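#lab-general

N.A. 3:47 PM
ok so I finally got the sequence cleaned up, no stray characters, all 88 residues accounted for. can someone with queue access submit it? mine expired

B.Y. 3:52 PM
send it over

N.A. 3:53 PM
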Amino acid sequence: MFLFGFILANRIGPFSGVDAPVQVLVRDNNVDQALKALKKKLQREGVFREMKLRRHYEKPSERRAREAAEAVRRARKMERKRIEREGF
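B.Y. 4:20 PM
back already:
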């Protein structure tokens, strides 16, 4: 058994700017399963999304507009879920 790891820099979240290793254990030489688990962890951390956003420069005004639109989408989604949960 060996450790398969990946160092994240500039992570999103409460520990932003902290280089924290993401580690996945490889059991029974099953590297494919370990890679799948690593990809899932990186997806949860938002690494792939951040990489996509950083491919090109985003003007501060564009960033604010994108973040505002994301906030609106999140609010609408939460409202839909609340209405569905309460049965209206």
